[in-house]
Amino acid sequence: MSFLMDNLPMFLIAIPLLMAPVTILTKGNPGLQKAIDIVVGFVLLCLSVLLITTVWNNGIIAYDVGEFGKYGIVLVADLLSAGMVLLNCSIGFLGLIYSYDYIEDHSLNQTYHTLYNLMLAGINGIFLTGDIFNMFVFFEIMLLSSAALIVANETSKVTKISDKMEATMKYLVLNILGGNVMLIAVTSLYASIGSLNIADITLKIRMLAETGAVPWHLYAVGLLFIIVFGGKAAMFPLHYWLPDVHPTAPSPISAMLSGVIIKIGAYGILRVLFMMFAPFQAVYGPVILFTALVTLALGATSAVGQSDVKRMLAYSSVSQIGYIFLGFGMAAMANVAGETEAATLILAASVVYMINHALAKSMLFLTSGGIIHTADTRDMRQMGGMINKAPMMGAAFLVGAMSIGGVPPMGGFISKFMLFDAGLRAQFYLPIGIALIFAIFTLFYMFRGWMLIFWGERDAQYGEYSHHKLSPLIVVPILLLAAVVLIVGLYPEPVVQFSQTIASQIIDPQPYIDEVMVRVIR
Amino acid sequence: MNNFFLELTIALLFGIGTFLVLRRDMMKVIIGFGIISHAINLYIVGGGVFTNGTLVPILEHEQAVEGLGQGLIYNDNLTAGILGPITTNPYTEFVDPLVQALVLTAIVIGLATTAFVLTLCYRVNEEYGTIDVQELRRLRE
Description:
The complex is a heterodimer. By secondary structure, chain A is mainly α. A two-stranded antiparallel sheet of chain A has the order 1-2. Chain A has a domain at about 155-515. Chain A has helices spanning about 1-5, 10-25, 30-60, 80-100, 105-130, 130-150, 160-195, 200-210, 215-235, 240-250, 250-275, 280-305, 310-335, 340-375, 385-390, 390-405, 410-425, 430-455, 470-490, 495-505, 510-515; strands spanning about 60-65, 75. Chain B is built from five helices and four strands. Chain B is mainly α. Chain B folds into two domains: about 1-50 and about 95-140, Helix Hairpins (Orthogonal Bundle), CATH 1.10.287.3510; about 50-95, no CATH class. Chain B is elongated and about 65 Å long. In chain B, about 25% of the residues are buried. Helices cover about 60% and strands about 5% of the residues of chain B. In chain B, helix 1 runs antiparallel to helix 2 and helix 2 (about 25-45) packs antiparallel against helix 4 (about 95-130).
């Protein structure tokens, strides 16, 4: 047991990474492959729960991979990382169960399990690593595996394979460019600071800023990092790939992409803005705030006009990422102005927003898979009256729509309320005003979608709905996620308290730095 | 990094790569990415040459212990303005081995992504019969 507890962060990365080749070797035996993968998913879920309870009770865990102290690779699990890992493992597990029925058998039995394991390993690695170059490596693992998963075939042939190819090409090209930019930034940082460890970089840049000797190019390096992470999270000038990629991916992968993978960008921005480049907040804060406002406006207005259900959800993801980044920008500006308490509140609201969006949006994407399964099309104009055929999907979609739209008693209401409340307290009247207007847009497009799909009658020319009943493998993950969204809305205190602790850890990263920097060379 | 020709090479490679990435032909875009990643590899290696006394951070155990007596400082002392690892010995030139490890990793990752993108490009050609980006957009609509 103590071996397990000592190496907990490593297990979360190593288990899926090692099981990926095992699932290749068992390719001839699909049943075994599925069994292995479901066990891996479940073990990961248990381990991530264990990790978050350990971190919550005993504080930050730092784990040396090599023997070189801060010069080697360090895995660090603070509350933010542990929370994101839990989110990844739980959504990943539900998505895995879902994909057993949703993905076409041929695709499923070839490489799906291997790639899924690699993707989970990559995402866990990104969240847990305390080394900026190692983060790049995990980025690429995640990128390649998720890009290959987008091309996987669904049972219902709604999305043409050629569309998938084209979207994947777009995703890959943009993200390879992002990876290259990140490599440039990492190298420049290493050449000028002499360290790749996040805690060490934080300390050194802080020291340089205090002595007033910051080299000017560090500002540019920080901006490069913001571009990279912003590109992953679909921030305004780099958002155009998302509405093509997320809809064409099979639904469980869309859920992972929209629920977890774009949060990687948000996580990276938190690390850049509040840890590594914390002294430059005065420069980066307004940039983030402005792009966030544009992002949320653009996403919301584009989502209004969509007729494709998954495309609408994808544009909604763009808009919601804008809200999350709005919180980051406001928190940075409040922090610069010396209002640490207000900054903590705003950041806590942003973290709650991240959690709620991850839950609700992945649930909505899974539901959209069920809807597509029933209607055999992605066009909402060709649906209607589905409430008689699939009442369960209707209820789940309504829960998700209410959560994204910010209607009580769903989780989304709590996050929007906290964000607007904290923003108004810190006197960001104009940004909050703009955000409020587009919150109404959000409400409009989500309910427009719900009414188009579930109310009214289906036009006879589009034929009957499928008579297949949805299998429990599809229904159960959706219902579980819907229940969580509802519970977070009805009883938000634990999540709020958890997010406030995360926010105070982010605003004051000293415990993180202390935990990493006490490690000397063995 | 104070070698003029190295800088010029890196700049040229970046320029050529960017030019190719902006082409319409998908194949040229991929080649452009290859060239850009090589430019970055050179940049990484170039970042490892120091002439200002920053020391190799990875040593054998004996050397490290020996080095402690010879003015090697591994840990930071922020009040004294020391960012480890540094040496007070009058060494003139060092090469950082870490960047070479980084560049190996970067090369391997570049290989994997290039292989993947090339396969995808081939499949796109099979599906659409063209790899011209503008043709693709026309065919989709």
